[in-house]
């Protein structure tokens, strides 16, 4: 499938900007119109360009690994939650495909920049930042910014550039030191997982700065679009989630759900946190003791689920964060045996300033704590640091050390997979990662579909990229949350809706829960001008996920890699609602491959699946064709 012609109006400019940060060369190419229709934008369009541009086997930290920034057709249009941008690259943490989604100013700025996609390649000899403005790009020196934290760097960049609305997306010290799970920050919003910050650091790029233009790409049917927005806003006001827990507590409303269901991991997943001990992590506690303001991550947003917090007293007084989110309360809280939001907020803030994924660093620290508990690590190994569960000061120290690759934190910076390989003694059995990415905070022994989300998702142990089954498994009376079988359809339905209707379309996944399929599809159709019905949301999402699978197989992924941490399959909890439960993952994986239309040997899509999704062109890649031939 070759490059297409520039499309007409339809929430797209029809332009792709390439910037070689090594040479300073800037060029423009027409957007592939067929790819834009097939993948919409955002995550899906980023996957398409990564497949086309990434040489198989590329070192993620080499100049050849592209960083692909995209917006979606709903981004910056006035759609509720329509402030999403995606970054797609190859992960230095997993060695596989990676996408990250963010709110804030980045998505709308890309939409108003005159480009649909911005692609960075190469490596600069000296630190630089990339400024995209007035239909082109330039490199600016950044030696003076190197070493600054993410908030100071954004502040200095805004001071030294001429006035105007700027979206500044930057790395901190963790990215500069190429920590494999370093993230990027725009405002206080994180592109959090898989190491996009390390890829940026490997290119010697401190930041991407996009100057917002005066106009967005025009909508195909603006009047229909406006009417549909009104209908969706009514749906969001009526929805009990988007107008209730999401608005009141943000993602921290999840703490009560996982505590009451026995699914919030504690002490590196050795047990479940109890509602009594974890009351200090509840969303109600956050709102009562720590809230400064409810904040949207982009306008318009009726829920304003982001929570700016501050610690007002005690040893962590003065710590301020936009958060924490649920996953941070788990990873830097309960997983480390900490049940007080004050040190969690302090740790969350430190991770944001240094530019580091809270989930991966927290879960890696919790793994080290269990190794310390079991005598596999000693005070001599840790430089005298007491790694007992509950030691919040040790967590803060290790976060700082990890970002700068000093002390025992230099080993934490490698992630739980690498640390387990180094420690040995079968510690891999309780290293809580999938494909090298630390897993999210939902114990799949209590919602079995999450086992498929973690093990078979496109970017490793992520809790949402490959679906999200908790809601259905805990609220649908027809679903047995403890059943191993029958979870593939639930997983795939949630996975495909998110990939197509949110991550590629350019709107918020939380808000999209309160949007009907009919209205969401009508909104996409009115923006793009293409025929697009409710079924196309799921078809597009399936196409995106299937291409992501092809990319991963080309990078070496096989069925043997679609696995859970051994603890979840071999160890049952002895107390609480999950007592006696383990995961029969061999059964679940076989059902998943069949339901996904994947060959069980190569895990590539079958001929029937490729034809149905319009993906036969992936066989034009010689390596993909060879892998398919070997598996036949």
What is the percent of helical residues? Answer: 25-40%
First and last CA, distance: 25 Å
**Average pLDDT taken over every residue:** 95
Main beta-sheet strand count, sense and barrel state: 6 strands, mixed
Content-based structural category: alpha+beta
The global form is globular
Sequence of strands across the biggest β-sheet: 2-1-6-3-4-5
Strand content of the residues, in percent?
5-15%
Q: Total helix count?
A: 26
Count of DSSP E strands? 19
Rg over CA atoms, rounded to whole Å, is 23 Å
Q: Low-confidence parts lasting 5 or more residues at pLDDT below 50?
A: 1-7
What features would you describe in this structure?
It is a single chain. The protein is of the alpha+beta class and 632 residues long. The chain contains 26 helices and 19 strands. A six-stranded mixed sheet has the order 2-1-6-3-4-5. It has a six-stranded mixed sheet with strand order 8-7-12-9-10-11. Helix 2 packs parallel to helix 22 (534-554), helix 12 (341-354) packs parallel to helix 14 and helix 17 (449-456) packs across helix 19 (488-503). The two termini are 25 Å apart.
Write the layout of secondary structure elements.
Blueprint: E1 15-20, E2 26-30, H1 33-39, H2 42-53, E3 67-71, E4 85-90, E5 97-102, H3 106-111, E6 117-121, E7 128-133, E8 136-141, H4 150-160, E9 166-170, H5 173-176, E10 184-186, E11 189-191, H6 196-202, E12 205-211, H7 222-238, H8 245-249, H9 254-261, E13 265-266, E14 271-272, H10 283-290, E15 291-295, E16 306-310, E17 320-322, H11 326-331, H12 341-354, H13 358-373, H14 392-404, H15 409-412, H16 416-423, E18 433-434, E19 437-438, H17 449-456, H18 470-475, H19 488-503, H20 509-512, H21 517-528, H22 534-554, H23 566-570, H24 585-596, H25 607-613, H26 622-631
Parallel strand pairs: 1-6, 7-12
Antiparallel strand pairs: 1-2, 3-4, 3-6, 4-5, 7-8, 9-10, 9-12, 10-11, 13-14, 15-16, 16-17, 18-19
Helix pairs in contact: 1-2, 2-22, 7-21, 12-14, 17-19, 17-24, 19-22, 21-22
């Amino acid at each position: 499938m070759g490059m297409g012609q520039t499309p007409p109006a339809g929430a797209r400019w029809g332009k792709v900007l390439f910037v070689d940060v090594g040479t300073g060369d800037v060029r423009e190419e027409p957007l592939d119109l067929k790819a834009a229709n097939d993948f919409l934008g955002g995550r899906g369009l980023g996957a398409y360009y990564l497949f086309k541009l990434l040489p198989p086997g590329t070192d993620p930290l080499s100049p050849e690994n592209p960083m692909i920034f995209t917006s979606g057709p709903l981004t910056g249009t006035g759609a509720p939650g329509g402030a999403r941008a995606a970054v797609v690259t190859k992960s230095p943490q997993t060695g596989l495909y990676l996408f990250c989604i963010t709110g804030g100013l980045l998505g709308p700025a890309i939409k108003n920049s005159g480009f649909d996609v911005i692609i960075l390649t190469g490596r600069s000899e000296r630190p630089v930042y990339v400024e995209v403005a007035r239909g082109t790009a330039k490199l600016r020196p950044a030696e003076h910014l190197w070493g600054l934290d993410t908030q100071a760097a954004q502040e200095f960049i805004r001071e030294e550039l001429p006035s105007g609305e700027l979206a500044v997306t930057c790395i901190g010290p963790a990215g500069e030191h190429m920590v494999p799970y370093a993230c990027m920050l725009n405002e206080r919003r994180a592109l959090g997982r898989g190491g996009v910050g390390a890829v940026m650091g490997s290119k010697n790029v401190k930041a991407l700065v996009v100057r917002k233009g005066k106009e967005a790409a025009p909508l195909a049917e603006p009047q229909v679009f406006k009417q549909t927005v009104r209908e969706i806003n009514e749906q969001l006001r009526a929805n009990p989630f988007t107008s209730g827990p999401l608005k009141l507590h943000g993602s921290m409303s999840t703490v009560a759900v996982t505590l009451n269901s026995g699914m919030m991991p504690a002490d590196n997943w050795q047990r479940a946190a109890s509602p009594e001990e974890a009351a200090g992590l509840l969303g109600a506690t956050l709102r009562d003791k720590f809230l400064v303001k409810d904040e949207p991550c982009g306008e318009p947003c009726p829920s304003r689920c982001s929570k700016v917090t501050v610690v007002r007293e005690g040893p962590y007084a003065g710590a301020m964060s936009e958060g924490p989110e649920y996953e941070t309360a788990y990873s830097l809280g309960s997983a480390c045996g900490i049940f007080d939001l004050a040190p969690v907020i302090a740790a969350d803030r430190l991770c944001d300033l240094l530019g580091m994924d809270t989930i991966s660093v927290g879960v890696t620290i919790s793994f080290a704590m269990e190794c310390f508990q079991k005598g596999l690590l000693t005070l001599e190994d840790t430089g005298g640091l007491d790694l007992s569960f509950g030691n919040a000061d040790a967590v803060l120290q290790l976060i700082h050390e990890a970002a700068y690759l000093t002390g025992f934190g230099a080993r934490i910076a490698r992630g739980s997979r690498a640390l387990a390989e180094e420690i040995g003694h079968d510690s891999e059995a309780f290293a809580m990662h999938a494909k090298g990415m630390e897993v999210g905070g939902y114990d799949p022994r209590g919602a079995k579909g999450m086992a498929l989300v973690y093990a078979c998702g496109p970017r490793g142990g992520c809790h949402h990229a490959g679906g999200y089954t908790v809601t259905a498994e805990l609220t649908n009376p027809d679903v047995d949350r403890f059943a191993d079988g029958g979870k593939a359809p639930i997983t795939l339905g949630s996975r495909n809706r998110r990939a197509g209707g949110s991550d590629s379309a350019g709107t918020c996944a939380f808000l999209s829960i309160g949007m009907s399929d009919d209205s969401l599809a009508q909104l996409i159709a009115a923006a793009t001008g293409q025929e697009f019905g409710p079924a196309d949301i799921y078809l597009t999402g399936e196409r995106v996920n299937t291409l992501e699978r092809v990319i991963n197989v080309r990078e070496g992924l096989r069925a043997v890699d679609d696995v859970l941490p051994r603890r979840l399959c071999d160890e049952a909890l002895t107390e609480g609602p999950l007592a006696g439960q383990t995961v029969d993952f061999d059964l679940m994986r076989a059902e998943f491959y069949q339901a996904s239309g994947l060959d069980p040997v190569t895990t590539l899509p079958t001929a029937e699946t490729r034809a149905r999704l319009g993906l036969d062109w992936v066989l034009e890649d010689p390596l993909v064709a060879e892998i398919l031939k070997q598996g036949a």
